[in-house]
Write a structure and sequence with these properties.
The protein has 97 residues and is α+β, with helices and mostly antiparallel strands. It contains 2 helices and 6 strands; from the N terminus they run ββββαββα. The chain has one domain: YggU-like (Conserved Hypothetical Protein Mth637, Chain: A, 2-Layer Sandwich), CATH 3.30.1200. Strands 1, 2, 3, 4, 5 and 6 form a 6-stranded mixed β-sheet that branches. The relative contact order is 0.25.
Amino acid sequence: MAPWLHAAEGGVTIDLFVQPRASKNQIVGVQGDELKVRLTSPPVDGAANKLCGEYFAKLFGVAKGDVTLVAGERSRHKRLLVRGLTVDEVLRTVDIP
């Protein structure tokens, strides 16, 4: 299993390293034990956190309310809980370069 992905009750958790102020929203690979994602939003007033949740909700085809930031509110190192998905579904969806 990928070191950044963990099964959780009712879904999965994903460990992220977020790079804000990027030119486009995209997953760029794995950095250490985290999935690295670039987001266009600046890390101001929770904008990057909000965009992170919206990006992953759209990527996985789940409601925005099914994606919750559970750790890392003020850090580049974040943990998301995505409800309603399995580890296999995430691995099939995430295209790591």
